[in-house]
Design brief:
- The structure holds two protein chains of two kinds.
- Chain A is 38% helix and 13% strand.
- By secondary structure, chain A is α/β, with parallel strands linked by helices.
- Chain A folds into two domains: 266 residues, Spore Coat Polysaccharide Biosynthesis Protein SpsA, Chain A (Alpha-Beta Complex); 223 residues.
- Chain A has a five-stranded mixed β-sheet with strand order 3-2-1-4-9, with helices on both faces. Chain A has a five-stranded parallel β-sheet with strand order 14-15-13-16-17.
- Chain A is elongated, with a radius of gyration of 35 Å.
- Chain B has a seven-stranded mixed β-sheet with strand order 1-4-3-2-5-12-7, with helices on both faces. A three-stranded mixed β-sheet of chain B has the order 6-15-8. In chain B, strands 9-16 form a two-stranded antiparallel sheet.
- In chain B, 33% of the residues lie in helices and 19% in strands.
- Chain B is globular and about 50 Å long.
- Chain B has ten helices and 16 strands.
- Chain B starts with a helix and ends in a 10-residue tail after the last helix.
- By secondary structure, chain B is of the alpha/beta class.
- The chains are: A alpha/beta, B alpha/beta.
- Chains A and B meet through helix 12, helix 15 and helix 16 of A and helix 6, strand 10, strand 11 and helix 7 of B.
Chain lengths: 562, 362
Amino acid sequence: MTQPVQLGVVLLCHAQLDVAAHMARIWVRGGARVAIHVDAKASAASVDAMKEALSDLPGIVWSRRHRCDWGSFGLVQATQDAAQLLLDSFPDLSHVYLASGACLPLRPVRDLTAYLALDPQRDHIESVSAFEVGWTVGGLNEERFTLYFPLDWRRRRKLFDRLVSLQRRLGVRRKLPKGIAPHLGSQWWCLTATTLRAILDDPRRAEFDRFFRLSWIPDESYFQTLARRHATRIESQSLTLAKFDHDGRPYQLYDDHVLMLEESRCFVARKVWPDATRLLAHFPRSAAARPDHGPPQPQRFERMINRTVRRRLLGRPGLYMQSRFPRKDAENGKTSAPYAVFQGFSDIFPDFETWLGRLVDADVHGHLLGPEMVEFAGRPETGPGAISSNRLIRDRDPQGFLTALIRITSRTQIFQFSPRDNQALNWFMATDANAHIHVVTGAWMLPLLQCGMPFDDIRRITAQLQRAELAQLDVLNSVWVRARVHVHELTDFLARPEAILLQALQQLPVQPGVMDTLPRMRDLDGLAELLRRLRNSGLRPRLSGDSLPTPQIPMPERTAAE
Amino acid sequence: MAHIATSYDAVVFVFLLPAVVMRLGRLPVPDRFRRRAERQYLVARAFNRRRALKPVVNRTAQIRSGDILAFVTLRNERVRLPHFLDYYRKLGIDHFLIVNNDSNDGSGNYLAEQPDVSLWWTNSSYKRSRFGMDWLNRLLARHGSGHWCLTIDPDEFLIYPHCDTRPLSALTGWLDTSGQRSFPAMLLDMYPRGNIEDEIYEEGTDPFTIARWFDPANYTISKNAYYGNLWIQGGPRTRKFFTAEPLSGPALNKIPLVKWHWRYAYVSSTHMLLPRHLNLVYDEDGGEQASGCLLHAKFLSTFADKSTEELDRRQHYANSKEYQAYHAGLRRGTNLWCNESREYGDWRQIEDLGLISRGNWA
């Protein structure tokens, strides 16, 4: 047997009283009794206009006005007074719903009463133990109850923070009143009249009020805590769809949310943007012949909100733009996708770029950071994303250049690198988990073998490049490296090029058909001789390897030919 | 009378004092005080230049509290005006405050007839009034205080997340509730496919049916430590006209939408403001704040004439270097389009590309 549900609504109104009047009308038309509380800050004229607008409706009572600031005890007092007035004026009520003037009923009020009638003894109030929640604003959970909070967090933020840390330092710990366990939850609830009366008529109410007056955001904890003391059965989920951002501000609802709100099948949603005329006209849906007591399904809407929260707090990895410019090491992902850097390979194999391009399903560029130009694959004047191949434009912001390229392209990016190139990104790439860096140290020396330059120039260039590569290796050997780095010395590489190439290819999207031949290797004649001359001229070649190659080193090309 | 004049001079002297302070250059004055001196100087300077603006039609009495205002300086933009006013009226601008810099193509008469336009006329030097910013700072201080103010050129069209379904007042309302006083909108250069002169722009039509292409990802950013703003460059102009010295390419960062206070001042165009906190419209911890875009309809058939004229007047930034570069480039018949240009769809496309963000505005 189900007893009939008679719904009462406590309507807390702050600003936009015309919209609030619209909401009150919806509730009254749906058969609910309404107690309206208007914030003491609202102007007398607007309150008079609201009273005038609602004068034709029965079943409305106006409660004493309190000043309601965000997170202040005034909100609790307003709720208490209005609820008391409502229960006194309409003793036949079975449930009381707490809503605001910006809460829009989405489904007919009859649906809500039908849903409540399914289990009339149940209290619908989100109530989570303060020791369990992880979603509170400002990083305070149980400290909300153990410290004193006389200040407005919104307006006196600095002083507020200082007071909190002072109390922490002094070891302030307020005593909780006996018999209550602090709980938190959404401000918007629907309690049975029995539970609500028990809370309001509690003989220890003065003691509880005194305690909550100085706790933080009591409107999210007063009823949530005391319901645990008095209720028989609690359904710990609010019937009002209300989401808050990381700063504790409610998300607003606009015309374009109509579809998603309708799908959510929630009874009430907040907070409605006052000028969302389509939304206000669309909801509540007109009542069907038989009241529909299906439960709310807000999951999809909540997913949308969670996506927004993630975007606000974490952002899109690898994106640098006008409203997201993370400081160093706060990027949440320095780049948006994995990429590979090959250093020295194009010096050993002159055709390495084309060879690799045929082998992998990826964009294989030349020296993107090269000293003459940006060597995009195919050497266009304008690369992916309309990025210029001009080196001056690139060097204006190398990091922006690389991250934009990686983000705008859908395929994996692979490029060549050498000590001749712009070294500005060494730290950036080494600390980026998306980077695969393959280095053959000392390979930059090979193009010098056949360059035909005077020896003095070769010596000077060698010294320069060696210094650059040593600085880079310092970076790659540091403890901050997050990239996957493979460093081989030139002699090691020449001893087993195939194995090392294969190993490098394993991490790339290799196309089926696999590698058949090695690319053509540069002629290494005269390397030992060059190294000897460099050494004799006072330079110490350090990067080509410990065991200096002799002219008789086994050439893989030759072995293959034999 | 003499007595009054003297006291007035004293006022001017006090106002100009910050300028003197700024010139003291090397003194170890903390940046905070330097910026404050500069801001006070700019506010005073705008006040001092107030007589340069002659009111033509003053309908500012129509402005109601909570109205969103647009502030514009223009010269010879008659062809663009109908669509411009239309676009922003639909977006939810309640009143336009426009400075007509000595137009001779009928812009003035056309604007004077519009019911929601207040018009001022001036023939002072654009360059010596800091490229019109003195005039606008003056109008902003006088009429914009307490309002959301959009400061734009007649060839800039604001888009922002959800702009197809939510009016500008929804955005400003949301900015108000989240305690933000400024909203960034980067300049996005739009251009046609083919030569710029080929398709003639007809009055009253949407310029982006012609100039509907843009560069998706070639923007470079650095942070200005002193003013706190981001300095964004790139786009087709840098790619095409400024390859030799990319640093002198045009700045694309803009903060056009501000809840104004008479103490605020635009420093350089709408690229940055003082006080500094208005420039901090980006997140540095990895998150994204909300931002929009100003679609720039500069590269239309009207551009070649305009660049010739502006080149003669030499009233633009850095001796009209930009216009010189364009003119050299455009005479060769260059077009800005390339294989990698993207065709403009809607704000969602721009957001996916990462040029704007909805931030926290679900």
